[in-house]
Amino acid sequence: MSQLPKQPTEGPVPTSADVARLAGVSRATVSYVLNNNAAVRISEPTRRRVREAATELGYVPHAAARSLRAGHTRMVLLATVNFPAGPLHHRFFHQLESGLRRLDYTVVQYGSTGLDADDAPRAWAELRPVAVIAPGTALTPQGISVLRRSGAKAVITLGSRPVAGAHALVMDQREVGSCAIGHLLERGRRRIGVVMPEERGPGLLAERRLAGARQVALSHGARIEPLPLRYEEESAARLAARWRTMGLDAVFAYNDEYAMLLMRALQDAGIEVPRETAVVGADDLMLGRLLRPRLSSVRLELATPQPLADLVDRLVQHPGGAPEHHDLLRAGAVHRESS
Amino acid sequence: MSQLPKQPTEGPVPTSADVARLAGVSRATVSYVLNNNAAVRISEPTRRRVREAATELGYVPHAAARSLRAGHTRMVLLATVNFPAGPLHHRFFHQLESGLRRLDYTVVQYGSTGLDADDAPRAWAELRPVAVIAPGTALTPQGISVLRRSGAKAVITLGSRPVAGAHALVMDQREVGSCAIGHLLERGRRRIGVVMPEERGPGLLAERRLAGARQVALSHGARIEPLPLRYEEESAARLAARWRTMGLDAVFAYNDEYAMLLMRALQDAGIEVPRETAVVGADDLMLGRLLRPRLSSVRLELATPQPLADLVDRLVQHPGGAPEHHDLLRAGAVHRESS
DNA sequence: TTGAAAGCGCTACCAC
DNA sequence: GTGGTAGCGCTTTCAA
Q1: Percent of chain B with pLDDT over 90
Q2: Which of A62, B82, B98, B143 has its CA 20 to 30 A from that of B123?
Q3: Is A188 on the interface with B (CB under 8 A)?
């Protein structure tokens, strides 16, 4: 209460020189004390005077000045362009951030909507981050080069596949497709539809999941039929209306939401699930358990973030190694009643 | 292709002095040219030489050095602690960021999990942001003061209610509760349950929604009954089993997910929806339309972000005014079949 | 039209 | 133990 500074808004921002003046010492001493510099021994009374002066003034060190002097930052820039927005990724980044902070990095998320693939890395580079984690889709070889030359020790891409010249955290969405199809094959299905959302967002993910589906189907002599679908009841009803003409005995519906939409439409059209057509979603939403039949799904898991924080730290400390690829995504079929 | 710099990883980061040397001019000239300084006229050939030298070296200006010299930054720090993670907010922040970038601000998201309410603002202040937008829950008066004294021209809180001494973007969740209850009252219900999730995350939101519900109910002589519920089928089944003992004729279920869970459980327990008990959710999920009966809901909307970007800009340019409060949340009942 | 130089806040080297 | 001070990269007066 009594410690609240007097002038909330006016007045210049206090610097270490102000602290030094108030404590009656030099700026060097202030720096030593506030950074707990072990290489130099300062008497306890002096330390106290400095600390008191600092809190009295509400002194906060100036990160820009510090890193300018140091010649490097400890900033990890997490570029969030075109990022999957679900709770799974949200939690993952959250934990990755905590892990990196524990290693004394400053993590900063930088959204770059509207900037193109050349401008965005330039904008990031201006902050001189020591490491950059960005979606592979936002990072061209030129972009990687810009970041490297601006002092980034580690450039790490994130996405369905690696990008040449950078380390990669791979979330191979094919895994999801192959997992779903594998499950359906096991249950005796051979003519399988794969829902392809017509919305903008899921486009790339859907392509990769389809690719994984095709891969597995091919090696088992099963048929894969892509099924464009908008996330609207009419679109689903239309698809359901011509369902029997397509001769499918199963469908992998991209994710649980599309699966629920389609399953309802199929049921309304008199198609029995799973007898006539099996349905599998993905993401294992709680809601799928409420439907009748309960929705089979593919559960996704991301790797534990702490080892990745350690990885970043290692790449920063020993840069220049060969690009490393780490697989983040684990997928597993969850069998319920709809398949 | 041919423009790719040669040494990807080694070598020092090029500075404006390097550009000057290569172009055969002074550092001052480099600065004039690259910043399109209108106050000084540079010959066209010189400009070209400078620009070519810059691209040849892959020069990227050093934001820290620039802002150190300028005495201020154009960084807007968006603190993301305890933020609702839904698509609604996600889109909102995304657009706010775009709007601010259009005004030439650098927007940076800073997660601060693990830092307490005193440390977090200090960490933010080290970056000397010109404006800070942070959840009200993460911002004590001390924190606000620290930011002010570190040069932040605008400190803006975000949340259910304003915080003393700062501008506020208010998302008054009571609105949601009162809207839901208002709808149920209109439809003749008088004894209304309000689901309170027992999970950690929604706690505060649920409290506010309940408060709004109580407010409206009180003024209409209706009864409100809080109903703790975990997001699990057993918990819902248990609640449904003792439903008739409670004598409720309606329930506002916190959001659509809890509503779906509970509605299913009620139906399984033989309670007719909406005849015996009306059910209302919130968030207006697409999935609610797939249930039978279709789920009534409260649709949430956040204000258009562009005016808020303009607001931030105005507060930065003319600091010191009285704290402003802006209401962001709009709620509206969506009547379907479950109420 | 261009160049020289000061100085933003900070840390680390070197004297005392 | 403590202080003086150079210099990180940049912009901007002031002089030429």
Answers
A1: 88
A2: B98
A3: no
pLDDT of B226 reads 98
pLDDT at res. B6 = 39
**What average pLDDT does the segment B290-318 reach?**
96
Q: Which nucleotide, over all strands, has the C1' atom closest to the CA of B29?
A: C2
User: Separation of CA B154 and C1' C10 in angstroms?
Assistant: 26
Scan residues 215-274 of B and list those with Cβ closer than 8 Å to A. 231, 233, 257, 260-261, 264
pLDDT at B11: 80
Amino acid code (one letter) for A88: L
Q: Is the pLDDT of residue B34 over 70?
A: yes
Please report which confidence band the pLDDT of residue B113 belongs to, taking 50, 70 and 90 as the band edges. confident
Give the per-residue pLDDT at B10: 65
Predicted structure pTM score: 0.93
Query: In angstroms, how far is C16 C1' from A26 CA?
Result: 14
Of B9, B61, B320, the CB nearest to A126: B61
**Can you give A161-206 as a three-state secondary structure string?**
CCCCCCEEEECCCHHHHHHHHHHHHHCCCCEEEEEEECCCCCHHHH
pLDDT < 50 regions, chain A: 1-9
| Shortest CA distance from A67: residue in chain B | B64
How many angstroms away from the CA of A122 is the closest CA of chain B?
A: 7
Which pLDDT score, from 0 to 100, does residue B201 have?
A: 79
Residue-wise pLDDT for A71-114, tens only, equals 999 999 999 988 777 889 999 999 999 999 999 999 999 998 88
By Cβ distance, the residue of A8, A125, A231 closest to B286 is: A231
> CB under 7 Å from any atom of strand C: which residues?
A 12-13, 15-17, 27-28, 30-31, 34-35, 37, 59, 61-62, 65-66, 68-70; B 24-29, 32, 40-43, 46, 65, 68-69, 71
Distance of CA B136 to the CA centre of its chain: 11
The C1' atom of C4 and the CA atom of B332 lie apart, in whole Å, by 66
pLDDT the model gives residue A6:
39
Whether the CB-CB separation of B168 and B323 falls below 8 Å is answered with: yes
The pLDDT score that the predictor gives to residue A24 is 96
- Stretch B204-233: mean pLDDT: 96
Say if CB A130 and CB A151 are below 8 A apart.
yes
Q: CB burial class (10 A; 0-12, 13-18, 19+) of residue B122?
A: middle
**pLDDT at res. A10:** 65
Which is nearest to B247 in space by CA: B189, B195, B297, B207?
B189
Which residues on chain B are in Cβ contact (under 8 Å) with A64? 63-65, 67-68, 73, 127-128
Q: What is the DSSP letter of A287?
A: G
**Rounded distance between C-alpha atoms, residue B18 and residue A158, angstroms:** 33
Enter the tokens of residue B150: 């570190």
Nucleotide D12: nearest residue by CA–C1'? B28
Q: What is d(CA B215, CA B219) in angstroms, rounded to the nearest whole number?
A: 7
Question: Quick one: tokens of A57?
Answer: 């003034």
- Name the DSSP letter for residue A337: S
Cβ burial of A270 (10 Å; 0-12, 13-18, 19+) is exposed
